[in-house]
Fold this protein.
Amino acid sequence: MNFSKFFAGFFLGSLIVLAFQPFNYWFVTFLIPGLLYQLIKTEGVKNTFFISYFFGFGLWAFGIFWIENSITVYGGASPILGSFLTLLLAAFLSLFQAISFTAFKLVSSQRKTHEIFLLFPAAWVLSEWLREFLFTGFPWLYIGYTAVDNSLLQGYIPILGIFGMGFLIVLISQIFLALLDSLRDFTQSKSLYLSCLVLIIVFIGNQPLKNFNWTESTGKISATVVQPNIDIKEKWTQKGLQKIQSAIEKKLNQNPPQNLTQSSVIFWPEVTLTSLIQKDKINEFRNNILDENNVLGMVIGALSENKSEEINNSLIGIGNISGIYDKKFLVPFGEYVPLSGLFSVFFDFFNFNRPQIFSGNKSELIGNDLIKISSAICYEIAYQNIFLSNSKKTNILFNASNDNWFGTGLGPHQHLQIARFRAAEHQKYLVRSTSTGISALINHHGQIIKKIETSTDKNELKSFQEDVILKSGQTPYAYFGKNPFLFILVIIFFISAILKFKRDENFI
């Protein structure tokens, strides 16, 4: 076993975390994937597995250590136990990198480098795809998300989507490494010229695409984004509910409908109201807060109960807008318990007297004739399908969240970066309201117009008001979705496996 390469893999994995927010050293993605390939290209299957595993462990151990905050601060665990459980999760997630790159090695060993330029990026993206749906899914820290801050590649986001951008970044990294090899060995002049040509085409092509508008403006509204800044432990108490109700009343008094000259919407975060609302009494609930005969609307997070007495995490349109959206992708052990008979102790560990949440079936656009809001609650924003089904109809994206669990560490910054990528992917404005930050208004190119940082003061409600441009139409990615690209990646692997089988009778 080559332990020095295992350590090198771990180092590269931990280093690539710097490419994501809040560090934003996106340029390291042009080197690290290629360096990982260099580590495994001459190794056998066994060493490839362990090098890739340690690469993944470096990525996850440093990239998601913010989860420890929720386990210790809100779960009441000791720092040692919290750290252990977080690293245990990192150890599990590392298997995705190990399995994917081992599969790459199985279908690529003893082949020429130029033949596998497409295969290694395909393996990288397929490992991310598997994480999107296996074991409830954890679509976090996809390398493509760094492109939203990458001035050399931003223009391709609405065309390629998250998986396409990941493929392109890893491919460029391999080309850079091939270019460096060519500079050391001028007998490879053909590879040098080809590498330079590909990079020039990609980077020059990005410039006109950066400012190209795939969607068109159809109007604007005034949006007020609210960040209540109430601690999660207090939020689920009667005192916390009274604080929120008082804040809503205060905000409505600041924005009386008779003083508004254009359509205005107030955006509140996930589960702003912790009291239970019956779905068959939604209209009564709306009228108690704000009647529909004015230009003021409100989107508010609340717990709702359906006819089967199941509780859903919902967003509800109030005032001159209507519609209900129920959260589909629930947080394991936070909102529901997989195999509840076996793991219910975990839910008891974190619940703070919260009810168990069920995935809902309401997927309505919230709005009216002018406003069409497509919603995602909390980390649903990381699932790229969340906005695809309503992409053609919607003109605003909304992400309501509660990042209170994760303190002021990396988590809220990574979450915001994902939201920014979704805005650029669909080229539509995205409003983000969170309980304690980071709340923001993001334009159709994924750039932040205004934001409220994560707050350490849990008693000061913050908000801002900005115009939101309504954008209609679809980007190429929104029109075609991810499936055509994934199909191409599977074909790349399938063809590689066939070629390997023909060349090596001992193919496994």
User: Anything to note?
Assistant: The chain is about 45% helix and 15% strand. The mean pLDDT is 85. Residues 3-213+482-503 form one domain.
